[in-house]
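quick one: magnesium ion bound model?
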Amino acid sequence: MGKIHQLSSVLANQIAAGEVIERPSSIVKELVENALDAHSHRIDVVVTEAGLGSIRVIDDGDGIARSDVPMAFKRHATSKIESARDLFRVQTMGFRGEALPSIASVADVIMTTATKGQEGTAYHIRGGEEKSLKPAIARQGTDILVTELFYNTPARLKYLKSPKTELSHLVDIVNRLALANPDVAISFTHDGREMFRSAGNGRLQQVIAAIDGVNVGRGMIPVHGENPDFRISGYISRPELTRAQRSHITLTINHRYVRSYALTKAIIAGYQSKLMVGRFPLAVINIDLDPVLVDVNVHPAKREVRLSKEDQLASLLEQAVYHSLANQNLIPDAGSQA
Ligand code: ADP
Ligand code: MG
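yep, here:
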């Protein structure tokens, strides 16, 4: 007998979970992204004990047919891409087929789902083991309840921070997802208290107001920029409205929230010398581009992306920020900015 053997699927999923599911907020991110990919108009996130009690995400999207439900929890099982060609033009948030098996490998999961006009299904899976698959009464959409997170991976459980910190990660991700998707109504309720709700009417400024307050929302300045490759749109704060961290800048690429040092720097550069040292603007900016120009398959959680033509995009972004401030006479229009 050789020494080498293939890991069981449960163990393989737990290892993958280490990359995809870091903390309660990662679960919320994955589940809300699944709901978005399923064309939901409304997504409710209901959490107790900063995610250690329970995480529930309810959507009114496409639902999953009963015969597909167990497959949805298999590793590398996805309805979103088929070939390598698709990988280079991903239009959906998900495509790796890792979230559901990862979550189910480290928690107790009950999914209730129904597709249009079909009888619903309730599926129970725990620690990667299927417990039951039954008919259920359900409206079209999907309702996932995750409890006992990391019950079988004590190291992970220990690594979690205080409930206060985990809650702030949860609030942060829900806010970013809502900013990235102003046409979807997203709510967040924690321990019975509604902490956030967006209307889903497509008005980004209203989502900003729901997060940062009506005055901030009202004071934001629109930004636009376009060249044959990129279309930039969003809002930025006036130079006098700043924060101590650059994390109040939300960047989305094709409505996917991403982190990019280079693009964040470009936004800040657009303010020229108008920002005080150590102060950063608020901004919510989406960049629409042909998916072939972006590789989202860099990081399992897809937070980082690789962009072709990043330098061109950065200068377009800087110009766009500069011009909207200059248009409002908030910075001198040097006229020399080409
Ligand atoms: P991925 O999103 O990368 O495809 P997941 O493990 O997150 O992988 O989900 C697996 C599959 O389950 C998805 O491709 C999709 O077909 C289905 N699915 C998951 N969540 C939902 C949902 N909320 N509504 C409809 N279908 C879903
Ligand atoms: Mg997914």
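The two ends are 70 Å apart (CA to CA).
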